Amino acid sequence: MGFFDSEIVQQEAMKLFQDYQSLMQLGSDYGKFDREGKKIYIDQMEAVMERYRIFMKRFELSDDFMAQMTVEQLKTQLDQFGFTPQQMFDQMHRTLERMKAEIKED
């Protein structure tokens, strides 16, 4: 069975994508959030990023051809912006840390 043939993988990918999309939409109003709302948003974004990191690691460790192609496609897309997957995750982490620091200053 291929990596993407697993119903669990499909469900997890769909849930992760939906959660990320919802947070991105919600994030457009981030500036209107009160301090507690900003904390909750950051916590949820950190949780989604960790889930994404784990999901991507599963792709990397899989022997499945399609999983490996997905990893290569991501690397190619990120390379166009001068990033590696690790640099992408590091940048996301720095952004969230900066957001946390801004909350503490308020």
Automatic annotation (TrEMBL):
<dbReference type="Pfam" id="PF08855">
    <property type="entry name" value="DUF1825"/>
</dbReference>
<protein>
    <submittedName>
        <fullName>DUF1825 family protein</fullName>
    </submittedName>
</protein>
<dbReference type="InterPro" id="IPR014954">
    <property type="entry name" value="DUF1825"/>
</dbReference>
